[in-house]
Specification:
binds adenosine-5'-triphosphate; 368 residues; NAD; binds magnesium ion; lyase; 9 strands; binds ligand NPW; alpha/beta; phosphoprotein; ATP-binding
Amino acid sequence: MIVKHGMNYLSVLNSARNHKLAPPLAVLRRQQFLIRVLGVRGENIMQESKFEADADNILRAITPVFDPNRHKGQAGKVAVIGGCREYTGAPYFAAISALKIGADLSHVFCTKDAAPVIKSYSPELIVHPVLEESYSVGDRDKDHMSRRVVAEVDKWMERFDCLVVGPGLGRDPFLLDCVSEIIKQARQASIPIIIDGDGLFLVTDNLGLVSGYPLAILTPNVNEYKRLVQKVLNCEVNDQDAHGQLLSLAKQIGGVTVLRKGMSDLISDGEIVKSVSNYGSPRRCGGQGDILSGSVAVFLSWARQLISANEGNLIISPTNPTMLGCIAGSALLRKAASLAFEDRKRSTLTTDIIECLGRSLEDICPAC
Ligand SMILES: NC(=O)C1=CN([C@@H]2O[C@H](COP(=O)(O)OP(=O)(O)OC[C@H]3O[C@@H](n4cnc5c(N)ncnc54)[C@H](OP(=O)(O)O)[C@@H]3O)[C@@H](O)[C@H]2O)[C@@H](O)CC1
Ligand SMILES: Nc1ncnc2c1ncn2[C@@H]1O[C@H](COP(=O)(O)OP(=O)(O)OP(=O)(O)O)[C@@H](O)[C@H]1O
Ligand SMILES: [Mg+2]
């Protein structure tokens, strides 16, 4: 088989199959090698390796060692704002992933309907049934109700190291108005915010909510990225200049960090671009992005702790904690997805990947 410069990953896989080079799993394993050699979009090998993050070393550097003097909460307190009548899985996936990686406390702020369901998935999560959708609020009560919802979240705000806004949030207009206020409060309190799922639907039409906030991370999937590019750059997604376009997008939103999910995850804060392309899984079951948002929340919190403990002097690069959080979260999720796929093959589900998070982190960064 001749691997030519410019072949994309699918044509490489097909060509490998045509040449009967290897059974399917071995071909898939070869995918990682080929991605590294050719670049995911057939880009120049030098260019791709120049952008590839040193993810394992970053993971090792920011994951804290166990210390008997530390108390509950110091390894991270995260909150997920999401969960409504339709979606209860997404906020659960994000919140439980944060705990499985090593956060001490994980909260979920969701609607009243979603709360008992999410609680029943796990006793580990602290679930607040505080969000309201339009159908449960009379027109006259809206102002009063909105103030109540925002106050309920705000009284906890200072305790959180990071918020994840959007997994399974839904798109109810009243609920999204309340969430806009919650984002404003978090920003005022300088709490990092990861915006995912329906949170991106909200923010794409209200960019002022995050614009210019360096502690904001947007984690768009293919649809969400397309909408962001159209809205912010007023053009279509350009895969020929994926790095340049992502850089412009992050810059244009005032230096927020954008993690563009895909075959290879691309991350930019408007200053630099990094990619994470370690082998993941060919399964595209729903919920993997939710694991990612919960994971990034934990690693971002740890990266900020490390930076403040070292008074800003880091021996790793990049030094922006949002970039570090994204690189570590992406690398860990992809490794866990690959382990889960090895075990479960076609039946791999998001819950299987969550079960592999601990082992994946242990492989890279042993607990003792
Ligand atoms: N197990 C769970 O609980 C999981 C729950 N999940 C949760 O699902 C939510 C949506 O996330 P997703 O990833 O499906 O959004 P995406 O790919 O942009 O949309 C695909 C297509 O659907 C449409 N569309 C979507 N939402 C719509 C709405 N409310 N009302 C109307 N249209 C809507 C959309 O149309 P468009 O946006 O282009 O108008 C596009 O064509 C989000 O909260 C996520 O966290 C996931 O995390 C998976 C696991
Ligand atoms: N084509 C792909 N090949 C390999 N890995 C991918 C591919 N697309 C996405 N991923 C991986 O899956 C993770 C989740 O991305 P995905 O695009 O599925 O998010 P999402 O649609 O928001 O997920 P969710 O269903 O949770 O909302 C990404 O971090 C990326 O590492
Ligand atoms: Mg998603």
